[in-house]
Design brief:
90 residues; alpha+beta; 6-stranded antiparallel sheet; 21% helix; globular; ATP-binding protein
């Protein structure tokens, strides 16, 4: 399991180049939820130019995933969180 400041990632699978897993929102998730929702909307609409701002904003957050049981942190260069699922690339 991987923990992020705003939630936890459960075990999942890798479908290269994407890693897919379960996402459980944490206590501070509500402040970031609208940004990730806007990014997901852009993704669903195949990234029209007028909706790419949230994609860049999420990338610029500098998300860091930390394994619960120790080990190296992961800094994905792309991450999507929607409906209890996470997909990321690093």
């Amino acid at each position: 399991m991987i923990v992020w400041v705003n939630g936890a990632f459960g075990s999942g699978k890798s479908t290269q180049p994407w890693f897919r897993c379960r996402f459980v929102p944490g206590a501070d998730w509500d402040e970031l939820r609208p940004l990730f929702a806007a990014q997901e909307e852009a993704r669903q609409q195949h990234f029209p130019e007028e909706l790419v701002g949230p994609v860049a904003a999420v990338r610029d957050l500098g998300v860091e995933l930390r394994p619960v049981q120790g080990g190296e942190s992961i800094r994905p260069w792309m991450i999507y969180l929607a409906e209890g699922r996470a997909s990321f690339r690093h």
